[in-house]
Amino acid sequence: MNETLRKTLTTLTLPTLLASALPATAADVVTSIKPLQLITAALTEGVTEPVQLLPDDGTPHHYALKPSDMRRLTEADVVIWVGPGLEQFLQKPLSRTDAEIVTLLLDSEPHEHGEHAAVVEEEEHHDEHEHEHEHEHEHEHDEHDERDAEDTAAHDHGAGSDPHIWLDPLHTLELAEQILPVLQKQFPQHQDQLLSNYEAFAASVRNKEAEIAAQLAPFSERGFFVFHDAYGGFVEHFGLKQLGYFTVDPARKPGARHLAEIRERLEASEAVCVFSEPQFTSAVVDAIVGDLPVRQGELDPMARGIEPGKDGYIHYLQTLADAFQRCLEKKDQEI
């Protein structure tokens, strides 16, 4: 092959080779939090890989977007979030993107005590300082004010506005049904694959739901407290005996009167277990439990560390079930 012919073929084929190396689709699917990424990843298996906006150690209760987060939103084709009742910090940023927005909890409203996290465009440390100042101000509230805020938020949750909507497995199937049409619209060439993925996901969730129901049935009368009011969907679905929670908003310090009541109930042996969370310090839980013969466990509402994929959400459900079983069954072994 002469040199001229070789250069001509290289010029013609190089763009083709580069194009073939690109993904089949350039559509960018972004989910606000890990649990939604797990659900979406099961639906998009073999089609695309959804991106999680918040880091695993982040919490939607108080988060400030970085410039890189804002770029990700503006470049996205689809953004999936729960709604302002959970990710209030996303309300304004989502108005700046042309992406297809999937709001899973349409009637959710921000809690009155929620933080208004801002997009950090220049002064991230300034925002952090303001956040710390707000916490100091909150801690100055008297016991009565703390309890009133807690009661108000608890009433909101009781009215059916709990935004942790992924913790009831059968409700999760409804979320998947909401997400599926948007994905099919975004990936028209993969409609059959997406539908097949949904059907496989639905079957897996139903099977896992039945397994967990059998696994946790022996512990339905074991009382426990959780760190914050996030697990209603899971607890109610599987008939567990949650006696209460330390706080509604994990960014807010629990009231002294409320903690004293929990201590009294622990002393009365109403609970066999108290759960903390990996995202927040368990110091307040340790202080209240003290030397009482109460087990301590850990629950993670945000699924940190769970790898996305077709079985990611199923694995997450099992980790929750196992965490409940480990803490609740210990009492049986000690009696």
Automatic annotation (TrEMBL):
Residues 126-159 have a biased composition (Basic and acidic residues). The keyword Ion transport applies. Residues 1-26 form the signal peptide. Keywords: Ion transport, Signal, Transport, Zinc, Zinc transport. It comes from the Bacteria. Residues 120-163 are annotated as: Disordered. PANTHER family: HIGH-AFFINITY ZINC UPTAKE SYSTEM PROTEIN ZNUA (PTHR42953:SF3), HIGH-AFFINITY ZINC UPTAKE SYSTEM PROTEIN ZNUA-RELATED (PTHR42953). Belongs to the bacterial solute-binding protein 9 family. This is High-affinity zinc uptake system protein ZnuA. It comes from Marinobacterium alkalitolerans. The gene is znuA.
